[in-house]
C-alpha cells in the first residue's frame, strides 16, 4: 500500500504515452481558454458588457501559445536537468506576455470611447492567468532547486509591478478602479493586517493564560470547542447586540471609550475562533517531549524553567509555528467579516463592491485577502520546516 | 453509551433556540432597556430557518457527495499520482474565505441562493475530501491485505473493509462539514439569500438590537442542533 502516498513524480522512463497525454491535456486546455471571451467591454463600471474573443490578442496570442507549447513539451518529453527550468521560464514569460497583451487589448478597445467605458477581464482571461500561474509553479516544483517557487513568485511580482508602473495595464478596468482608490486600498490592506495580527496576539496570549489555569482546563476546553460551532456571523451579531445592550443599560461605560461597533468586538470574535488552533498546538507541543526524558531531566536536577526552555521548547517549536500558521490564515479570512461591525479592513471594500454590484471593486478587496493568506500560509510553513530542521537535525 | 456526547450540543442548541423566540429575546432586550422594535415573529423565524436549513442541507449533500466521492477516488492505487496536487489545491482553497467566494460569485451568479451554494461547495469540499482521505488511509494495511488475501475484488475491499472501518472518521468529517455549511449559509445573507443571517446583517446595518440577537441565537442554535444530530447518528452507526 506504499503506492498511495507516493507523490506526483517523473515517470520511470520517458514513455510516449506520458508525453502524448501531457501535450493532449495542454492543447485541450489552451483550446478551451481561447474559446472563452478574453474581455468584456462595458459602457460603465456596473454593467456586464459585450464579450470580446481571444482574436483581440493578435500576434502576441500566437507567441503565448508557442511558449506554452515549448513549456508543455519540456515537461512532457525530456528528462534532462534543464527541461524543468526551461519550462518554468517559458510559462512565466507566457504569463507576463499574456497580461501585457490583455492590457494592450483593453487600451485599444477603450481608446476613443467615453471615459466611463471599461474593459474588464473575462472568464477566458482568468482561466488563462490561473492556468499559466499553476503550470509555472508546477514546473518550478519540478526543477528540484531549493526555493525555485519563491524565486519565480518574486520575479513575477517584480515583473507585474514594473509593467504596472510602465502603464501596461492602464486600460484594464481593475487598474482604473485601483487608480481611483489607491490610498483607500493601501490603508485597508494595512488595517487588515493590523486586525489579524491583533487577533492572533490576543488569542496566543489568552490561550497560554487559559492553559496555565490548570483547575478549569476541562471546562475551558469544552468552551473553546463549542465556540467553533457558533457561526462567525452569529457570534459577531450576538456580541454586538449584547455589547450595545450593556452600553444602553449602563451609559457610564460609554465614557470609558467602550463601543459596541468597531475593531474591538471584531478582534475579540476573531481571537475567539483562534483559541482552538493555539490550544491544540500547545497541547501537542507539550506532549512532544516523551515522559522518560522528562523524568531524566528532573532526576539530574533541572529546574522547571530549564525543562521548559531546553526540553519542551525545541521539541514543540515546529508544532507551535504550525498552530500559528493555521491561526493566521483563519484570522485573515475572518477579518474580512470584521467590516460587518465597522472594523474596516479589506472586507469594507468587498462589501462596498457588493452593495454597488461593482465587480472590479469586489476584486480590489478580494484579491489582496487571497494574496495575503496564501503568502502567510506559504511563508509560515517555510518557517515551520526551518524550525523543524534546526531543532531536530 | 456514546449518545451522551450529543447531549451537550443538544441542550445548548435548545437553549439558544429558546433565546431566539420573540418573547424571550424581547424580555432580555427589555432588561437592557432597549426598545422592542421590529422583532421577528416566530413564524418569520421558522421561515428563515427552513430556508437556511434547505440551503445548508443542499450544500452538505453536494459537498458530501463530491468530497467523499473524490476522496474514495484518489485513495485508489491508480490515482496515487494526484495526491500532492490535491493537497496543494486544498491549501489554496482554504486561502479563500467564504465571504470572498460569495462576493466573487455575486457578479457572475447574481443575488441570492446560487452564490451561497457556490461558496458552500467551494469552502466545504476540500476539508471533506481531506477528512475522507485521512479516514481511509487510517485503515490498517493488515485489514486491507487480509481482505485481498481472502480473494475480495478491489470493489469488495472498498465496500466491505475500507468503508466500514473508515465510516466513523468520514461521519466526523461530515459533521464538521455540516457545521461549516450552516455557518457559510449565514454569510450568504450578505449576497441577499434569505437565511437566518439576514436579520443579523439587517440589524447590524440599522443598529437594531432585537432581530440581531434573535438571528444570532437562532443561527447558533441551528449549528448546535446539527452538531448534536450528527453526533447522535455517528453514535448509532458505531454501535
From TrEMBL, chain A:
Transmembrane segments: 20-40, 46-70, 82-103, 123-141, 148-169, 189-213, 225-250, 256-276, 331-351, 357-376
Residue ranges of every copy of the ABC transmembrane type-1 domain listed in the record: 189-380
Origin superkingdom: Bacteria
Main subcellular location: membrane
PROSITE patterns registered for this protein in UniProt: ABC_TM1
Organism classification: Bacteria, Pseudomonadati, Pseudomonadota, Alphaproteobacteria, Hyphomicrobiales
Coiled coil: none
Membrane topology of this protein: Multi-pass membrane protein
InterPro entries: ABC_transp_perm/SBD, MetI-like, MetI-like_sf
Gene Ontology cellular component list: plasma membrane
A GO BP entry: transmembrane transport
Protein name: ABC transporter permease
Keywords: Membrane, Transmembrane, Transmembrane helix, Transport
Automatic annotation (TrEMBL), chain B:
Family note: Belongs to the binding-protein-dependent transport system permease family.
Keyword Transmembrane helix among UniProt keywords: yes
Major localization listed first in the record, in broad terms: membrane
Single biological process term from Gene Ontology: transmembrane transport
Chain ranges of the ABC transmembrane type-1 domain: 49-237
Cellular component, GO annotation: plasma membrane
Membrane topology classification: Multi-pass membrane protein
Transmembrane segment boundaries: 49-74, 176-196, 216-237
Domain of life, source organism: Bacteria
The entry's keywords: Membrane, Transmembrane, Transmembrane helix, Transport
Pfam families according to UniProt: BPD_transp_1 (PF00528)
Subcellular location: Cell membrane
Name recorded for this polypeptide: Osmoprotectant transport system permease protein
